[in-house]
Structures are given as C-alpha cells and as structure tokens.
Design the sequence.
C-alpha cells in the first residue's frame, strides 16, 4: 500500500494552473499514470486523471463515500481548522451524504426540481419564457437601451450573474423585496469579500425563514415541492439544500454560460459550428467538455483499501476526481475527436453515478437560452482580451471567469422569440405601462434601458457596471 502522507508531492495549484491546466495534467499522467498524488493547498490528495477510473469511482457509492467522517486525516484532527477548502466541505448537504440519508434527500430533490426540468410541465414552460425575457431585459439594459448599438460590457457581471440571480429568485419563490436582499447577499458570498461571512449568516437565516414561510403557504417553487416530497425534513437541513441550489444555479450555471461564450468565440471544439447549425444543446456540451465548471469534484474516501491506477489507496484517503483531466484523457479525447465513437454528452461536467447532478437538464437549458439570446441579439461579439489573458478565477474546484469583457454590436432583431404567458398562481412579471416594465423579483427599469427612480438596489448595482455605449 502507498502511504499518501509520506509521498513527495508537487503542489497542484501552481500560479499558472488556470491557463496551463491541461499541460499540468499531461505531465502528471506521464509521471504517475491515471491517478496521481498531489498537494492541494498543503494537504496530500489523490487526483484521478483517467476517464474510466473517474467513472468507476463516481459510480460505486458502496465503496466510495462522501461524508467527511470517512476522511482519516480529518477524523484524526490532522487537517488545520483554517485549511482554505474546509468551508466548502463542512456543509450539511446532500452532496456530502451517503447511503439512505443521501437517497432520501435526493429523491425529494428530484421530485421538487421536476416541474421546472420536465419540458412538458407548465412551470418549466413558464420558466423558459421567463429566462428569455430576463435575458432580453439584461441585454437591453447593459447596452443602455440600444442607444449606441455598440460598446463594451462585462458579460459575467452584467449578464450571466444577474440572470442567474433572477432565475434563482424564481426557483426559490422569494417574495419581491426579500429576494432582492438575498440576491445581493449571494453576490457577496460568491465574491468572498470582507463582508462574505456576515452575508452567509444572513443568507442562511433568510433561507430558514423562507422554509418556514413555505411550510405555512406553499407555492410553485423548489422549497415548497421539497417540503411536499418530505414533510419531515428539518428547517435547517432544507435551508442547506437550498443553499446548494443557490450556489449551483448562480455560480455554476453562470460559469458554464460564460465558458460557453468563450468556447464559441475562441474554441476549436466545434462549439461555434454547432451554434451556427442551431444545435445549441451540443454547443453547451462542447463547452462543458472543453472547460467543465467544476474542474475538480469534492473528495471521495474509500471504505477499504482499493487499487486504482498504479496505486493501492488506503481506506480514508481523500480522492479527488477531475472531470477536466478525465476529458483530456487521450483514450476518451480521441473518441470524442472522432465524433462517432463517443457522444459529447459523455462528459463528466455534471458528475456521474448516484451523486450525478440532478439539475443537469435545468442547468443546460438555462445556459442554452442565455447563450442563444446573446448571439441572436448581438450581431458581433468579440473578447477584448486574448483567452489566456482573461481573468480566470483561482479555485481548486471551479473553473470560471471573474469577468468576461466583450465588445458588442447590437442587432436590430426582435427582442424575444418565446411568447410569455404568465400562469396562475405565479405571475412574476407584469407590464405596468408600455414604457416601464416591472420585473417583480428585482425592480424596475424603462424599456429604453434607463433606470427609473423606483429601481431596486439590484438594478442600481447593475447600472453602476454599465459603460456608456460607443457613439457608433
Ligand atoms: C452548469 C451548472 C452545474 C454544474 C456544472 C453542476 C455540477 C454538479 C456536479 C459535478 C455534481 C456532482 C458532485 C459530485 O459527484 O461530487 C452536482 C451535484 C448536485 N447538483 Fe449540480 N451542477 C450544476 C447545476 C445545478 C443546478 C442548477 C442545481 C439545482 C437546481 C444543482 C443541484 C445539484 C445537487 C442537489 C447536487 C447533489 C446531488 C447528489 O449528491 O446526489 N446543480 N452538480
């Protein structure tokens, strides 16, 4: 058996890891094979680089557990309390549950998300129309109402993130004013700034309050459907699951949206060709293959010693599956490149096996609409920086951008292609006057893109991001 703790390991997160990740994985593969011991922020872990090995680990939840109680070094108190990844792991939510507890929570979640994910359901159809409308509102807004037709914008801060905050508000069924505060707090948490700790406390309190409200007055939203699926779930546990929904929707879906735009504009994986051919689902898959939003997954721990790659891994060792590395595994990548042998849907960006993302279809359709609206509304869209100079986030788990600066030219085309028909009892959007559209969740702005005095903090913040459009 190989003792992970005593092996000489190189730091995985080098200063250029974000832009040289594929080369770093190739170097590790050459040196160790499909599994490599690495140093993750001072803690030794096994990194799974092979596609088949990744699938084998992800599919077998009898042998591979997710709860931190299986982590030997953690149980023995050898992980420092201030280890930077701990806050992301010490969360009491489904992705870290095992066995029956996992199955119960997951079944409730699958039932709760189905109304929004199954395209034949009214809530799913309404959501698609709403996302289209939100996307159009944001595009009009960032382009200053279209007055200048061309300009510079940050598609991350001014489009992807606010779009996903608005969608999250709808999925969670927040009342208007409350949702506004919560969206701002999600923003603060994700930016991990000085006010993040206070924001996460407020956010968890707001989510618990939301659960209590939905217990009393259920609506057409994920918390109410989760309560209906499992009325015995505690308020605290449900708040944690909702926290996972918020982070996944705002951060991961927003990240995939931006990564897809980058792949269409700069990639050589066929993302642009599939978008031109109207196959936007394929475009999203190609982007998820090229740059999975979760480039590494949170740890799994074997319950007994197990052979993987060239090593015997001891019970309780942390094992990190890397979708990004698995996608560049030559055996898998060659199959994808030949197109016929492996479908682009075989990517691991949403994981695989019993913990595979239950929001996969929802996430993909949000990204597809978001990307489609951008490329329909802008006749020209190009990065203002070369791809490797974009501000990639430094994160052991998420591969995304801090901002996505583009130069755009707005088209004269129609604003929305999907008809919107609000369905009772939820009527999230009302048309107050022909000039002023009011989006119930977030505030108000005029159809020429100017901000009305009654605007919310959310739209004021977006207004602060706007650059004045070019004259031409
Ligand atoms: C592009 C966006 C998304 C990506 C890349 C993504 C990725 C993933 C991955 C890789 C996992 C598995 C983690 C593991 O096996 O360790 C996962 C699990 C999960 N995701 Fe997503 N996700 C996305 C969007 C969403 C959305 C929109 C929701 C909810 C509406 C969601 C809810 C969940 C939940 C509840 C789990 C835990 C499932 C379980 O443990 O059984 N995700 N996601």
Sequence:
């Amino acid at each position: 058996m190989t003792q992970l703790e005593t092996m000489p390991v190189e730091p995985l997160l080098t200063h250029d890891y974000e832009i040289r990740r594929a080369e770093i994985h190739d170097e590790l593969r050459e040196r160790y094979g499909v599994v490599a011991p690495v140093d993750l922020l001072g803690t030794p872990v096994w990194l799974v680089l092979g596609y088949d090995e990744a699938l084998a680990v992800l599919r077998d939840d009898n042998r591979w557990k997710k709860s931190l109680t299986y982590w030997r070094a953690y149980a023995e108190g050898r992980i420092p309390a201030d280890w930077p990844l701990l806050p992301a792991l010490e969360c009491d939510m489904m992705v870290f549950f095992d066995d029956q507890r996992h199955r119960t929570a997951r079944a409730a979640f699958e039932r709760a998300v189905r109304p929004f994910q199954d395209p034949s359901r009214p809530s799913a159809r309404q959501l698609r129309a709403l996302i289209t409308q939100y996307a159009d509102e944001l595009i009009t807004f960032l382009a200053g109402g279209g007055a200048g037709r061309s300009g510079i914008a940050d598609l991350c801060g001014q489009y992807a993130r606010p779009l996903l905050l608005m969608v999250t508000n709808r999925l969670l069924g927040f009342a208007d004013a409350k949702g506004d505060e919560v969206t701002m707090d999600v923003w603060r948490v994700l930016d991990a700034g000085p006010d993040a700790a206070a924001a996460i406390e407020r956010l968890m309190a707001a989510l618990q309050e939301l659960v209590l409200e939905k217990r009393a007055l259920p609506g057409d939203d994920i918390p109410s459907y989760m309560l209906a699926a499992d009325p015995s779930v505690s308020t605290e546990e449900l708040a944690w699951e909702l926290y996972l929904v918020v982070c996944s929707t705002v951060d991961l879906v927003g990240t995939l949206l931006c990564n897809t735009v980058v792949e269409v504009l700069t990639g050589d994986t066929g993302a642009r060709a599939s978008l031109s051919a109207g196959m936007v689902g394929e475009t999203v898959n190609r982007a998820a293959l090229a740059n999975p939003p979760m480039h590494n997954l949170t740890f799994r721990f074997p319950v007994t010693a197990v052979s993987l790659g060239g090593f015997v891994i001891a019970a309780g060792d942390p094992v990190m599956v890397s979708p990004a590395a698995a996608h560049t595994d030559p055996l898998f990548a060659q199959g994808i490149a030949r197109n016929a042998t492996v479908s682009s849907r075989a990517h691991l960006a949403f994981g695989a096996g019993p913990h595979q993302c239950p929001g996969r279809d929802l996430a993909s359709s949000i990204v597809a609409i978001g990307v489609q609206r951008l490329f329909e509304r802008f006749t020209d869209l190009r990065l203002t920086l070369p791809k490797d100079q974009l501000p990639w986030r430094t994160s052991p788990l998420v591969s995304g951008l801090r901002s996505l600066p583009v130069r755009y030219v707005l088209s004269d085309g129609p604003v929305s292609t999907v008809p919107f028909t609000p369905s009772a009892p939820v009527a999230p959007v009302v048309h107050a006057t022909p000039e002023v559209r009011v989006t119930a969740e977030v505030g108000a702005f005029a159809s020429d893109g100017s901000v009305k005095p009654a605007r919310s903090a959310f739209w004021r913040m977006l207004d602060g991001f706007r650059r004045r459009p070019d004259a031409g």
About this structure: The radius of gyration is 22 Å. The first strand starts at residue 35 and ends at 40.
